[in-house]
Amino acid sequence: MRLAVRLEPADRNHSDRDRGRESAGGEDSTDGTEKTAPVCAFLLSDAAKDVTGQIFAVRMNEIFLMSQSRPLRSVHRAEGWTPQTLAEHGIPALKSSFYKLDRSADIFNWDAI
Fold first, then answer.
1. 57 closest CA partner among 22, 14, 89, 92
2. Residues 41/62, Cβ–Cβ less than 8 Å
3. How many angstroms from the chain centroid is the CA of residue 52?
4. Contact 16/112 with Cβ under 8 angstroms?
5. What is the domain range of residue 14?
6. Total structural domains in the chain?
7. How far apart are CA 56 and CA 66, in angstroms?
8. What tens digit of pLDDT does each residue of 58-96 get?
9. Is the pTM of this model over 0.90?
Protein backbone atom coordinates (compact mmCIF):
# COMPACT_ATOMS: atom_id res chain seq x y z
CA MET A 1 0.00 0.00 0.00
CA ARG A 2 1.14 3.50 -0.76
CA LEU A 3 -0.20 6.47 1.16
CA ALA A 4 0.68 9.97 0.10
CA VAL A 5 -0.39 12.86 2.27
CA ARG A 6 0.22 16.52 1.57
CA LEU A 7 -0.51 18.94 4.37
CA GLU A 8 -0.89 22.58 3.45
CA PRO A 9 -0.82 25.55 5.79
CA ALA A 10 -4.28 26.66 6.81
CA ASP A 11 -3.88 30.02 5.08
CA ARG A 12 -3.71 28.29 1.70
CA ASN A 13 -6.98 26.41 2.22
CA HIS A 14 -9.28 28.78 4.06
CA SER A 15 -11.06 32.02 3.38
CA ASP A 16 -9.88 35.34 4.80
CA ARG A 17 -12.56 35.03 7.47
CA ASP A 18 -11.18 31.60 8.51
CA ARG A 19 -7.65 32.99 8.67
CA GLY A 20 -8.80 35.78 10.98
CA ARG A 21 -10.56 33.32 13.26
CA GLU A 22 -7.48 31.10 13.38
CA SER A 23 -5.10 33.95 14.04
CA ALA A 24 -7.28 35.01 16.94
CA GLY A 25 -6.53 31.62 18.50
CA GLY A 26 -10.21 30.73 18.76
CA GLU A 27 -11.81 27.32 18.91
CA ASP A 28 -11.22 26.79 15.19
CA SER A 29 -7.53 27.62 15.43
CA THR A 30 -5.68 24.84 13.60
CA ASP A 31 -2.79 24.11 11.33
CA GLY A 32 -4.87 21.38 9.71
CA THR A 33 -3.10 18.32 11.09
CA GLU A 34 -5.80 17.43 13.60
CA LYS A 35 -8.34 17.54 10.76
CA THR A 36 -6.21 15.42 8.44
CA ALA A 37 -4.99 12.89 11.03
CA PRO A 38 -8.30 10.97 11.31
CA VAL A 39 -8.38 10.50 7.53
CA CYS A 40 -4.79 9.24 7.55
CA ALA A 41 -5.48 6.91 10.48
CA PHE A 42 -8.54 5.50 8.74
CA LEU A 43 -6.67 4.94 5.46
CA LEU A 44 -3.96 3.05 7.35
CA SER A 45 -6.50 0.83 9.10
CA ASP A 46 -8.02 -2.49 8.05
CA ALA A 47 -11.37 -0.69 7.68
CA ALA A 48 -9.99 0.99 4.54
CA LYS A 49 -9.02 -2.26 2.80
CA ASP A 50 -11.38 -1.49 -0.09
CA VAL A 51 -10.22 2.10 -0.47
CA THR A 52 -7.39 2.24 -2.99
CA GLY A 53 -6.21 4.63 -5.68
CA GLN A 54 -8.33 7.50 -4.37
CA ILE A 55 -7.35 11.09 -3.74
CA PHE A 56 -8.89 12.83 -0.73
CA ALA A 57 -8.69 16.44 0.38
CA VAL A 58 -9.56 17.75 3.83
CA ARG A 59 -10.73 21.29 4.51
CA MET A 60 -11.68 21.82 8.14
CA ASN A 61 -14.52 19.30 8.76
CA GLU A 62 -15.12 18.52 5.09
CA ILE A 63 -13.62 15.58 3.21
CA PHE A 64 -13.54 15.70 -0.58
CA LEU A 65 -12.98 12.92 -3.08
CA MET A 66 -10.84 14.49 -5.80
CA SER A 67 -10.69 13.69 -9.49
CA GLN A 68 -7.96 11.43 -10.76
CA SER A 69 -4.93 12.82 -12.50
CA ARG A 70 -4.74 11.65 -16.10
CA PRO A 71 -2.48 12.70 -18.98
CA LEU A 72 -3.94 15.53 -21.06
CA ARG A 73 -1.28 15.94 -23.67
CA SER A 74 2.27 14.78 -24.36
CA VAL A 75 5.35 15.89 -26.24
CA HIS A 76 8.22 13.73 -27.39
CA ARG A 77 11.78 14.50 -28.36
CA ALA A 78 13.91 11.62 -29.67
CA GLU A 79 17.11 13.20 -28.32
CA GLY A 80 15.59 13.80 -24.89
CA TRP A 81 15.03 17.13 -23.22
CA THR A 82 17.29 19.86 -21.93
CA PRO A 83 16.11 22.88 -20.00
CA GLN A 84 16.60 24.95 -23.16
CA THR A 85 14.64 22.65 -25.51
CA LEU A 86 11.95 22.30 -22.87
CA ALA A 87 11.67 26.10 -22.68
CA GLU A 88 11.76 26.53 -26.46
CA HIS A 89 9.58 23.63 -27.61
CA GLY A 90 8.17 21.43 -24.85
CA ILE A 91 6.40 23.94 -22.65
CA PRO A 92 5.02 26.02 -25.55
CA ALA A 93 3.56 22.83 -27.05
CA LEU A 94 1.87 21.95 -23.74
CA LYS A 95 0.86 25.45 -22.63
CA SER A 96 -2.55 25.48 -24.34
CA SER A 97 -3.54 22.53 -22.11
CA PHE A 98 -2.36 24.06 -18.81
CA TYR A 99 -4.94 24.18 -16.05
CA LYS A 100 -6.06 27.56 -14.85
CA LEU A 101 -4.66 28.15 -11.37
CA ASP A 102 -7.68 28.59 -9.14
CA ARG A 103 -7.55 29.52 -5.51
CA SER A 104 -9.55 27.51 -3.00
CA ALA A 105 -11.80 30.53 -2.50
CA ASP A 106 -12.57 30.53 -6.24
CA ILE A 107 -13.66 26.89 -6.18
CA PHE A 108 -15.33 26.64 -2.79
CA ASN A 109 -17.98 29.33 -2.65
CA TRP A 110 -18.89 28.43 0.93
CA ASP A 111 -16.99 28.83 4.16
CA ALA A 112 -15.18 25.82 5.57
CA ILE A 113 -17.40 23.97 8.00
1. 14
2. no
3. 17
4. no
5. 10-107
6. 1
7. 6
8. 888 999 998 888 898 999 999 999 999 999 999 999 999
9. no
